[in-house]
Hints:
Layout: H1 18-28, H2 30-53, H3 60-77, H4 80-95, H5 98-126
Helix pairs in contact: 1-2, 2-3, 2-5, 3-4, 4-5
Amino acid sequence: MEPSVIKLQMEEPARFNPDRLERLCAEVGELRAESEVARALEAISAWLQEIEVINPLTDANALATTLSALIAASDHIGMATLARVGRNVSACLARSDTVALAATHSRLMRVGDRSIHAIWDLEDLSG
Length: 127
């Protein structure tokens, strides 16, 4: 009997904190909140692109700075999973754990993509 290889699908739902978005709307108004979410999504997309190409072994400071901005923006608009995974990458970077950093970095890229699409899908549903 030949050994079989099972391909694991790396899927994780993007968790969104609707309470955070409601608080943002209450704090600044619905129109301004919508504008802040759109700006944050554009910035998050740009930071994810930067993070994807930064070499953490040679430019840890740039990665840490970009991760910090990504985490803050994600928290601000309620992208809970993305913020959490960003903190995980930061922790691996701080420990200089290259194996865990590679794994969490890949996870951040997957979750980032799903999170952005989840927010846009919410926007489409709300009209």
